[in-house]
């Protein structure tokens, strides 16, 4: 492809029980400024009316034989795609109108660029709770701050040339929670990955604290084998102070009983560790204060403290699992491929 060519873009939308947002997602695609788009919704055996909504928008619908997970659903969408550019978009995300245009411009102007990723707007697609607002601002700040060359992919919102996908191979369906890390590792052996904040959309984030903490735990734990293999990876130990912030939060909890056991002077330990945890991501707290005000920032800080503790526990759990399980150490060596049927 050359910058002069206007290639067909296949937008692949994996979906499982997201009827609530699918209509907004597909409506946003209909408003794209780029004219050469085909949309393929891969429905992963939804039990709601997702398929009916997709048909109502006149898009191509592929339904899996069984529930196979988002990575496998993306691979299946590629099997049915005709485009020279593949744009992967989660069904709980509504793009800004010029996003596909920007993605094509980037991919067709630089042959060394394998994948272009995007970010989330600071406001959620459907605001439901304070937890969701926390998650929206936290992800917006973290992801947008990585603008430029990265080593992972953000699987909810990324595009690549079809020829690159064929060369690198499909996403690993065995990695339902961490396929983005493994795929980014594979892509960067041959191509560059760039995060561009012009590639953006509103996302319907999780609105329950338990779900948010569970996702942080599982993703952090599952990333440990890759971080040990490649310390320079995005979010890995060599390029982020946030890991130290999480450790400081955990040790603030562990040292909290010291003033009771050893005397008031020991209060300095948990207080200093808490301050260190906040200082590790001070720019984020300042952003939230400017954007949402002091009262929400206090709420945000409390939730993020729980997140930091959860991540630190997950790191130790992942490290222990690496020591005890050869299979876990080789998590990112597993290749796989699935199937299904079009309706």
Automatic annotation (TrEMBL):
Residues 10-122 form the Glycosyltransferase 2-like domain. It holds the Pfam family Glycos_transf_2. InterPro entries: Glyco_trans_2-like, Nucleotide-diphossugar_trans. Gene3D superfamilies: Spore Coat Polysaccharide Biosynthesis Protein SpsA, Chain A. Coiled coil: none annotated. The chain crosses the membrane at residues 267-288, 294-320. SUPFAM superfamilies: Nucleotide-diphospho-sugar transferases. Keywords: Glycosyltransferase, Membrane, Transferase, Transmembrane, Transmembrane helix. Signal peptide: none annotated. It comes from the Bacteria. The keyword Nuclease does not apply. PANTHER family: POLY-BETA-1,6-N-ACETYL-D-GLUCOSAMINE SYNTHASE (PTHR43630:SF1). Belongs to the glycosyltransferase 2 family. This is Glycosyltransferase family 2 protein.
């Amino acid at each position: 492809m050359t910058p002069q060519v206007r290639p067909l873009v296949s937008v692949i939308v994996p979906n499982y029980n997201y009827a609530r947002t699918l209509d907004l997602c597909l409506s946003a695609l209909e408003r794209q400024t780029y004219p050469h788009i085909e949309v393929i919704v891969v429905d992963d055996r939804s039990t709601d009316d997702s398929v009916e909504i997709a048909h109502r928008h006149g898009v191509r619908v592929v339904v899996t034989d069984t529930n196979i997970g988002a990575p496998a659903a993306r691979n299946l969408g590629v099997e049915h795609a005709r485009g020279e550019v593949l744009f992967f978009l989660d069904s709980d995300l509504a793009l800004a109108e010029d996003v596909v245009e920007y993605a094509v411009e980037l991919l067709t102007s630089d042959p060394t660029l394998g994948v272009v990723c995007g970010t989330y707007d600071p406001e959620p697609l459907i605001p439901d709770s304070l937890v969701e607002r926390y998650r929206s601002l936290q992800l917006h700040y973290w992801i947008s701050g990585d603008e430029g060359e990265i080593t992972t992919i953000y699987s909810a919102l990324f595009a690549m040339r079809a020829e690159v996908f064929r060369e690198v191979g499909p996403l690993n369906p065995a990695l339902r929670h961490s396929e983005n890390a493994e795929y980014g590792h594979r892509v960067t052996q041959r191509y560059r990955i760039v995060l561009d904040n012009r590639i953006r959309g509103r996302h319907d984030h999780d609105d329950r604290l338990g779900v948010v903490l569970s996702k942080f735990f599982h993703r952090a734990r599952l990333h440990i084998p890759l971080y040990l293999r490649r310390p320079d990876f995005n979010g890995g130990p060599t390029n982020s102070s946030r890991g130290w912030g999480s450790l400081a939060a955990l040790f603030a909890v562990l040292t909290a009983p010291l003033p009771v056991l050893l005397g008031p002077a020991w209060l300095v330990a948990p207080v200093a560790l808490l301050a260190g945890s906040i200082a590790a991501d001070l720019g984020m707290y300042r952003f939230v204060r400017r954007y949402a005000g002091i009262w929400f920032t206090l709420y945000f800080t409390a939730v993020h403290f729980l997140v930091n503790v959860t991540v630190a526990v997950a790191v130790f759990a992942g490290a222990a699992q690496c020591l005890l399980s050869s299979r876990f150490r080789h998590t990112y060596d597993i290749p796989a491929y699935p199937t299904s049927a079009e309706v």
